[in-house]
Specification:
The chain is α+β, with helices and mostly antiparallel strands and 513 residues long. Helix content is 58%, strand content 14%. It has helices spanning 29-51, 59-62, 64-105, 109-163, 182-188, 190-193, 211-215, 217-229, 286-333, 335-340, 344-369, 372-377, 379-394, 411-432, 461-465, 474-484, 507-510, and strands at residues 168-172, 177-180, 251-255, 258-269, 277-284, 397-404, 436-444, 447-454, 488-493, 499-506.
Length: 513
């Protein structure tokens, strides 16, 4: 960035040798000194003419105006531009009026015309030189403004270039890296940093860094192929493929001890073929790729789980209600025989018992698929009942707390929170070996918080967040359900310290119709 221009309106001389003109000469004390010098020269000439009784018709006296005032007028034009030249020439013209009037009254028309021509010539010179100097001044200021704007734009580009968190490489037509930003130095190492900002021509060919050495042959091949092909326009517009960047596979690098995935994308720079360059930006897609992989794994496990659930439901229906109904049919067939033997009432009682048992099993299966209490009584009652039933099965101490003002929530939110709490309690029953379990619902002004906390064995939550190899749908399923309703799920756990499932639902989600 360049500094501000010098104050006072004065800048160094230009390349033509002319001083930069002051656009407001009357603000400069030296300008007024120059006007006093003009007056002094006039008075000196008048004094000499009177003292020595010089004849006004003599050649020296007739052309003294131009000789005396030429230097002040030119000096004013060169140093103060058009305004200074016009003011000085006007001042000289005003001082010449008495002499012109005197010669005209004396009928010395030759001297009068000589005086007039000198004044006109001085005025013309002042106009031409002043206008030229002012034009050069304006052009110089325009060039300086353009240069400063260019420097500011270059500094802004450099700041943006260096502050970009994505590594950026500038590659020439030969495949050599000519410039990098700070992120690229951090990712690719000091080999690039040592040559950074060094022009390509001043860098030894053997010491130059090749793109293929940084990003690998596959990504470099695509990037360099596009760079070379861009030097010649395609024969048909259909040959251009704008989606080529999407097919570039992420490249893995070790950054500060962790594996990071970067996907390179290229942009052409420069107009001529000799100056053709490419800007290669490496976008960090680690989180995106990891989430995509997790979603694919989750989708595959959901399909597998659905099939397992269907198999389980079919098995449950076959082993329970279906067998009971078969037995019921046989009992109906034997009612007539039982009536003849006097055991009809006993057979009917047994028949009723079978029907009641079947109804109970079907209700249990239906409740597992979709709890009716969630639709009838809401989230608070359904989670409380689920906690009480789990405590009865596993014999642990339970506590359930609600703060704020409970209210009904949108059905998708209630179902998602119910399933998250159900999965959390299921994990407690299967894995935690907990003695105490606490569930809390916080209805706050800014949203809703669901907490499920146990004092069980715990687990390493970091491995789950990093994409562990567990085939369970538990943690990924809870995370996905929370994500789908626009909420945040955090799991705090460590081996031997228990587990806390924390779900926060913003008020914007709760207020949705």
């Amino acid at each position: 960035m360049t500094g501000p221009a010098p104050s006072g309106g004065q800048t160094p001389a230009s390349g033509t040798g002319l001083a930069t003109a002051n656009p407001r000469p009357w603000t400069d004390s030296r300008f007024w000194i120059l006007q006093l010098v003009v007056l002094a020269l006039y008075l000196v000439r008048l004094a000499i003419t009177v003292a020595f009784h010089l004849d006004s018709t003599s050649l020296a006296v007739e052309f003294s105006t131009f000789a005396i005032f030429l230097v002040p007028v030119v000096y004013a034009a060169l140093n103060y531009g058009f305004p200074g030249a016009i003011v000085t020439a006007g001042w000289v013209t005003l001082l010449a009026v008495p002499r012109f009037a005197y010669t005209a009254n004396a009928h010395d028309f030759v001297a009068a015309w000589a005086e007039l021509m000198q004044i006109v010539l001085l005025d013309i010179l002042a106009f031409l030189i002043g206008q030229r100097v002012s034009a050069e001044r304006d052009a110089r200021q325009l060039a300086e403004s353009a240069h400063e704007a260019h420097l500011r734009a270059e500094a802004l580009y450099r700041d943006l270039f260096d502050s970009n968190k994505s590594p950026i490489l500038i590659v020439d037509a030969n495949g050599f890296v000519v410039e990098t930003n700070a992120s690229a130095e951090r990712v690719f190492g000091s080999a690039v940093a040592s040559d950074r900002k060094k022009p390509t021509g001043s860098r030894p060919k053997l010491d130059a860094v090749r793109l293929v050495d940084m990003v690998g042959p596959e990504a470099a091949s695509l990037v360099l192929t596009r760079l070379i092909s861009a030097q010649a326009p395609p024969l048909h517009a259909q040959e251009a493929d704008p989606s080529a960047d999407e097919r570039v596979e992420p490249v893995t690098f070790e950054v500060e001890g962790r594996s990071v995935l970067f996907r390179p994308s290229a942009t052409m720079l420069g107009g001529s073929n000799s100056d053709k360059r490419m800007q290669v930006v490496f976008e960090d897609v680690t989180a995106e790729t990891r989430r995509h992989d997790q979603m694919e794994a989750y989708a595959a496990r959901v399909v597998f789980s659905q099939e397992e659930e269907r198999r389980h439901i079919a098995q449950e229906l076959h082993d329970g209600p279906l067998q009971a109904l078969i037995h019921l049919c046989r009992q109906i067939d034997s009612i007539e025989a039982a009536e003849e033997e006097g055991r009809g009432s006993l057979a009917i009682a047994e028949l009723r018992s079978i029907v009641e048992g079947t109804v109970t099993e079907l209700r249990s299966i239906a409740r597992g698929l979709r709890p009716s209490i969630l639709d009838d009584l809401g989230l608070v009652a359904s989670i409380n009942q689920m906690l009480v039933e789990a405590a009865e099965r596993q014999q642990f101490q339970s506590s359930f707390g609600v703060t704020g003002s409970p209210r009904r929530l949108p059905p998708p939110v209630e179902l998602a929170l119910y399933r998250i709490a159900q999965e959390a309690l299921s994990n407690v029953e299967r894995h935690a070996a907990a003695q105490r379990v606490a569930v809390g619902l916080d209805f706050e002004s800014g949203g809703l918080r669901l907490l499920v906390k146990d004092d069980g064995v715990g687990f390493d939550s970091a491995s789950h967040h990093a994409g562990g190899t567990s085939q369970s749908l538990g943690v990924p399923g809870m995370s996905e359900r929370a994500h789908l309703i626009g909420s945040r799920l955090l799991i705090h756990s460590a081996e031997g310290t228990g587990t806390t499932v924390d779900v926060w639902v913003p008020a914007t989600v709760l207020d949705r119709a």
